[in-house]
Amino acid sequence: MDDDTVPSGAQLVESLDEAISFARKYIEDLLSFFGLNTDVHASSEDDVIELAVPSTNLNGFLIGQRGENMRAMQFLVSNALKNNNYRYVRVNVDIADYKKQRADRLAEHAKEWMQTVQQSGEPMDLEPMNAADRRTVHKVAQEFGITSESTGLARDRHIVLKPAA
Fold first, then answer.
1. How far apart are CA 114 and CA 145, in angstroms?
2. How far apart are CA 71 and CA 15, in angstroms?
3. pTM to 2 decimals?
């Protein structure tokens, strides 16, 4: 089934606010299965539903190794939205600001890469990284006036930084 198709007889839920409320309740219910009754902060940015779970004694478990459990929760919430015919199904789950802190650290490294490209005048190929990390690097490149483009496929997708023309 296409992302834009809805099962016959079902109505596509167009409201972003309704999608945010559904996603928030879904993740709060999911967390309650682990004995964690907490309020999740829910918002949106660029049509992506942002769910921020506050820091608790279960951070390590909820985040998982390299964020795997957090990504699994993100997948579950996104699929629940799809299965309930919401238009907005892109979800970002962040637990105890794990992703935010990671993005901040990556941005600091990216600034060093930008300075290297500016000083050398040579393009720089970065190591493969996930989409969220690539977005962070593209933002920093834009701030520095450096050209950045993603190349490669799947696990080999990486950024090439080029000095401004």
1. 9
2. 24
3. 0.77
> How many structural domains compose the chain?
2
Distance, in Å, from the CA atom of 80 to the CA atom of 28, rounded to the nearest integer, reads 13
| Domain range for 60 | 16-96
**One domain for residues 84 and 149:** no
Secondary element (H or E) of residue 84? none
pLDDT given for residue 66 in this prediction: 85
Residues 122 and 82 both lie in one domain: no
Give the pLDDT confidence of 42-96 residue by residue, as tens digits: 999 889 999 999 999 999 999 999 899 999 999 999 999 999 999 999 999 999 9
Tell me how far apart the alpha carbons of residues 62 and 115 are, in angstroms, rounded to a whole number: 36
Q: Are residues 119 and 86 in the same domain?
A: no
Residues 6 or more apart whose Cβ sits within 8 Å of residue 93? 27, 51, 53, 70, 71, 73, 74, 77
Nearest one of 97, 110, 120 to 141, comparing CA atoms: 110
